[in-house]
Design a protein that fits this description.
Distance between the termini: 21 Å
Number of strands: 15
Oligomer: single chain
Helix content: 25-40%
CATH topology of the largest domain: Carbamate kinase
CATH superfamily of the largest domain: Acetylglutamate kinase-like
Strand order of the largest sheet: 5-6-4-1-7-9-10-8
Number of helices: 16
CATH class of the largest domain: Alpha Beta
CATH architecture of the largest domain: 3-Layer(aba) Sandwich
Radius of gyration: 22 Å
């Protein structure tokens, strides 16, 4: 979605032009991803069935306007705890995976039971980071989601906690929801939590804290605000929601953070009410393969670049040549996704390499004309071609 941003006045106030822009974005959104966190979907004794019922009721009404929805739903571990009458949340990975296995069936059943009231079908989709890091599996998952939507089904997505290990975790469902939004080219992501939006200070500690209604750039100020805005439950705090927003903005997708405990929150948002914080997408954003690269949760290795290479890639859109490489980490092959970093460890972006890690180790710091002499062959002058490289959201926001 391409958005032309209004100009704020000298006092940085939100004027009618900004309000109209938000209403236009929400009104025109047809494909929407909704993320519901643990703070909304769980209670001390298990799932919050009232919250699930209200969400299904609102989605049923909004679908009559020609909208389609994907849900990213937390709650499997909490549901499993209730089934097992567990008094404390599991701590070890094995315990969490076992409890999630028990609870996941209850979670999808709760969604199915409520959607059945409106004759809406729901489908369970369980993913790991590996599913999205592999280009073929990523495309298969995208095709499945698109087919379900074409059938009028509401996909309910969650991380596959039962089999996931630390190396392939998304981290939290905030990140997963942003990846799903990009995968299906969503028009809008709505992240419902126990906080009404992004505040300048923690509203739990300061009742006079000001809500930020619009964000157009994730900078150090926004990150400071996120660190001061605290939620109550789940693995994803406000900082993880900001990271998700940053991904969405780089993919051209608006994102709203709003209080999921408010009654009729979804219908009110689509009625044009100024609720929560909206993050507006950048005018320049990625599509296709570069969008996939941007979403990767676990690249196969890392390459460190000198300052000249960083400038050439970031400011001039050049390909990565071996002469600009200072260090190689990891074991990866030709065509694998690799993260590129500056000398001080900041992420520059992710790209598909033309050489193996062992080969790059031999040609790093060398001119492209020396590659064949060193290796005995030459696939390409570039280690990563610019067409196979995506800048990190942090770099794009500078």
């Amino acid at each position: 979605m391409k958005v032309a941003l209004p100009v704020k006045n000298k006092d940085n106030e939100v004027n009618q032009e900004w309000i109209s822009l938000r209403r236009k974005i929400v009104s025109e959104a047809r494909r929407i991803v909704i993320k519901l966190g643990s703070a909304i979907l769980t209670r001390e004794d298990g799932l919050n069935l009232v919250a699930i019922a209200r969400t299904c009721d609102q989605i049923a009404r909004l679908r009559e306007e020609g909208r389609e929805f994907i849900l990213v739903s937390s709650g499997a571990i909490s549901a499993g705890m209730r089934k097992l009458s567990m008094a404390r949340r599991p701590r070890s990975i094995t315990e969490k995976q076992a409890v999630a296995a028990i609870g996941q069936s209850s979670l999808i059943q709760a969604w199915e039971d409520q959607f059945d009231i409106y004759r809406i079908k729901a489908a369970q989709i369980l993913l790991t980071g590996d599913d999205l890091n592999n280009r073929r599996r990523y495309l298969n998952a995208r095709n499945t989601l698109n087919k379900l939507l074409s059938w009028g089904v509401v996909p309910v997505v969650n991380e596959n906690d039962t089999v996931v290990v630390e190396e392939i975790k998304f981290g939290d469902n905030d990140n997963l929801s942003a990846l799903i939004a990009g995968m299906v080219n969503a028009d809008l992501l709505i992240n419902l939590t126990d906080i009404e939006g992004l505040y300048e200070k923690d509203p739990h500690e300061d009742p006079n804290a000001c809500l930020l209604p619009f964000v157009t750039k994730i900078d150090s100020r926004i990150k400071r605000c996120a660190s001061k805005t605290c939620g109550l439950l789940g693995t994803g705090g406000m900082l993880s929601k900001i990271q998700a927003a940053q991904k969405c903005m780089a993919m051209g997708i608006p994102m709203i953070i709003a209080g999921g405990e408010l009654r009729d929150i979804l219908t009110n948002i689509f009625a044009g009410e100024q609720i929560g914080t909206i993050f507006l997408p950048q005018e320049t954003h990625y599509h296709g393969k570069k969008q996939w690269l941007l979403q990767l949760s676990n690249p196969k290795g890392r390459i460190f670049l000198d300052d000249g290479a960083v400038v050439a890639i970031v400011e001039r859109g050049k390909s990565l040549l071996p002469i600009g490489i200072t260090k190689v980490e990891g074991s990866f092959g030709v065509g694998d996704p690799v993260e590129c970093l500056s000398l001080d460890g900041k992420s520059v972006g992710t790209g598909l390499v033309n050489y193996r890690a062992s080969e790059i180790e031999k040609i790093k710091g060398k001119k492209s004309t020396e590659i064949e002499k060193i290796l005995g062959f030459k696939y390409s002058d570039e280690v990563i071609h610019r067409d196979n490289f995506a800048l990190s959201p942090e770099i794009m926001d500078l």
